[in-house]
Amino acid sequence: MRTIDNQPEDIFLGGWNLVLGAGLILAPWYFGFRSEDIAAWNAWITGATILALAALTLMRTREGEVYAIGAAGLWSCAAPWALGFQDAAAWAHVGLGVALLVSAGSWLWRLRDLPASQKSAQKSAWQTAPPAARATPRVSEDRSACRPGTRTPSPRS
Length: 157
What we know:
By secondary structure, the chain is mainly alpha-helical. The protein has helices spanning 8-30, 37-56, 63-83, 88-113, 125-128, 131-134; strands spanning 3-5, 60-62. A two-stranded antiparallel sheet has the order 1-2.
């Protein structure tokens, strides 16, 4: 699973997804479909899911989170037909769902195209270091400084 440490444009996408999630939560009141229980509850649950996923992606973006945001956007687009609501509720769901799909697609594009130097290491620095760097340091062969009662010569003598 690919992961990136976020650059400013990734933080913008995370913030944009937060705005889209909040928009979906507020849509029942703004577009006037609060009385349609199925549409309103779907907007609240999907919006809360998007808010949680977008909050996770603010510091570091993981590929799985982006796929989940895309899946939530796809569900938001399909929900009017799957759950049978229409008019303002359908337009709000489809519009915000398309925006989420575009956002997730651009994020996946960035994950795919980033150079390896900008991607987070999937392994620790110890695992990715060349074998010569991983070797344990050798102890000096001159052990006279380690014996009790021996003095180390000063550098000025």
